[in-house]
Design a protein that fits this description.
The chain is about 30% helix and about 25% strand. It is α/β, with parallel strands linked by helices. The chain has a single domain (about 5-10, about 35-200), classed as Rossmann fold. Strands 5-4-3-6-7-9-8 form a seven-stranded mixed β-sheet, with helices on both faces. A two-stranded antiparallel ribbon has the order 1-2.
Length: about 200
């Protein structure tokens, strides 16, 4: 059986995919500006293949830690030398965060969790909860199965980026609530839906 983790790592480590991979991550989750939620906070970004978010927002935070489990991606991000000293880039797996408990005010998952199989995503959520301070924010965007729908026939279960797990907003909200988060804000009107949750 094909392992999603291996497929994703192979896709992201192949520099031939980098030029074709573009994303319009902006500084909003739905209609909610992200910047005020990050100001003077200790932030962890899970997955930094597109360092747009670091370039746009890292200087507003108190500290910024960006991880990815693919060494080539971290090397690519470190090449953005204007971020060195502002952002700490590190090779790390979101399922097994080598970081202390209660270390961050905010954790960002901008569709990085979409590339994990469901059981692995549950592990990642446990780790996110562990490293977040009480009342810390978990800000996530994800592949919205309610909107994407027909693309499953186009791409099959794997998606165009190695592997992409899709989930309905109502299902994700229920999972996050089971994991100890309360929903603050959401926007599920597009294929990349977003939620802002607080750790209870």
């Amino acid at each position: 059986m094909t392992n999603p983790t291996q497929v994703v790592q192979q896709w992201y480590s192949n520099f031939l995919n980098w030029d074709s991979a573009t994303h319009d991550y902006d500084t909003h989750i739905g209609i909610t500006p992200v910047a005020p939620l990050l100001k003077d906070k200790d932030v962890l970004n899970l997955g930094c293949f597109y360092p747009n978010i670091e370039l746009a927002l890292a200087a507003k935070a108190k500290s910024w830690h960006a991880i990815d489990f693919t060494p080539e991606v971290i090397d690519r991000c470190r090449a953005f030398t204007q971020l060195i000293g502002i952002v700490k880039f590190e090779v790390m797996d979101m399922r097994y965060l080598e970081l202390p408990a209660n270390a961050f005010n905010v954790v960002l998952d901008l569709s990085s969790g979409d590339h994990l199989a469901f059981d692995d995503y549950m592990l990642a959520l446990d780790e996110i909860s562990r490293v977040l301070q009480p009342s810390g924010l978990f800000i996530t965007t994800y592949a919205n199965a309610d909107v994407i729908g027909g693309e499953i026939e186009k791409w099959g279960p794997w998606g165009p980026w190695g592997y992409e797990r899709r989930i309905c907003p109502v299902n994700l909200q229920a999972i996050l609530e089971q994991k100890g988060f309360s929903l603050m804000l959401k926007d599920d009107s597009s294929s990349r839906a977003g939620m802002v949750c607080i750790k209870r």
